[in-house]
Amino acid sequence: MTVLAIGDIGLVSGMMHIGDEAMFEAARDELAERGLSMTGISAEPTESSARYGMPMVGRLGFAGLSRAEAAARADLLVAAATGRVRLEPDDPAGDVLEVFDDASGLLNAGGGNLASRWPVHVYERTALAAMARARGIPVVVSGQTFGPDLADGDAERVATMVWAAALTGVREPVSGGLARSWGASVIEGVDDASFLGWSGVAGAADASDTVIVSLSGWFDGRPADEVERRIASLADHAARTVGPVVFHAHFGPFDRADAPAGDAALHERIRARMTEPSEVAPTGDPRGAAALARGARLLITGRYHPAVFAAPAGVPIVALSADDYTRIKLSGALAHWGQGGVLDLDDLPPSAVDRVMDQGGVIAARAADRLPRLRDRAREWWDAVADALGP
Question: Is the domain of 21 the same as that of 157?
Answer without folding.
Answer: yes
